[in-house]
Amino acid sequence: MANNNSTNNNGKMSREEAGRLGGKATSKNHDKEFYQEIGQKGGESTSDSHGKQFYQEIGQKGGQSTSNSHDKEFYQEIGSEGGKARSNSDGMSREEAGRKGGQARSKNND
């Protein structure tokens, strides 16, 4: 069983505490750009090592989790916000957006 205290039975720092302190130190020494770069590298590495099915599965799990924790009003609100953002965007028509989305999708399925 994991020990969630800051020290273990030997009086030494736990992994949890060491990780927390290391994360704090790293955040003091690095800026937003650093985190963006390592996030990009991590995403590319994950993409290289996992296929389409992996992303479908995690997307399904995430969608199910969101569905379980949010009600109808949540989806109405985000749909409304998305519609507002869409109407305030670059002026691209729905037809143009649909065409571009269809082209992108067909390229991904090739």
TrEMBL record:
InterPro entries: Stress-induced_KGG_rpt, Stress/Virulence-Domain
Annotated Low complexity bias: 1-10
Residue ranges, annotated region (Disordered): 1-110
PANTHER family to which the protein is assigned, alphabetical: CONIDIATION-SPECIFIC PROTEIN 10 (EUROFUNG) (PTHR36569:SF5), PTHR36569
Protein name: General stress protein
Species: Paenibacillus bovis
